[in-house]
Amino acid sequence: MTTATDKQAFYARLLAIGEERYHDKHAFHAMLHGGRATMTQVRAWVINRYYYQSRIPMKDAAFLSRCDDPDLRRAWRSRIEDHDGGIDEGGGIRRWLRLAEAVGLDPAYVASTRGVLPATRFAVDAYVSFVREKPLLEAVASSLTELFAPKIHSERIAGLLAHYAFADQAALAYFRQRLAEAPRDVEFGLAYVLDHADTVEKQDAAAAALIFKTDVLWAQLDALYSAYVTPGLIPPGGWDGEQGVVVKPTAREAAE
Length: 256
Hints:
Layout: H1 7-21, H2 27-33, H3 39-64, H4 70-76, H5 78-84, H6 92-102, H7 107-112, H8 118-133, H9 136-141, H10 149-163, H11 173-196, H12 200-228, H13 251-254
């Protein structure tokens, strides 16, 4: 094995991956944050992104099942609580379903995941399998897209508030909460990766894991763009633009 480069240089390498490959640069996000997405496209995003949100605590549970170190388990388990919440309230999944309701979808339909695009399902399931099967260092490194998340959450909050009537404090609670949670999570995850990637080989593996995760996020937006923007070909099983909608169309939707 080859001696690793210093931590600061490796950290810069991780940041460069986000600068080049994070999904804030995808055309679908430019549409969404700029108010150019139709409500059909917004709802499709909410439906498909829910599948990712709902699998995050499952991914983290799979990670915990492999941890022999109780200190690591104690530090990591808050991620499950952040997404699942308590018995009766709280959690990112419930907050996402409030967003679903705000955009005019039946939360029960969204939670069923029946309208999720095949490519979305494939990408997210691949991420869960990655964390379940890869070395712990690589599993942790794959979570470091959180390094780049606060910026996209801030842009999303501002963009949705500026351009969409559904956007209010309750609807956007998921993103506001992640502004507080993500920095805490990434502080631990980054320290773990920088400490444990102590050879060039391990640094390369950790960087590859982060690239894999950016690919997972990008692939989900590619699927949305292909199905609901251009060429607009919804694959079998994908949401048809009508099922699960519980509000009358707005004037803008009627003109679509």
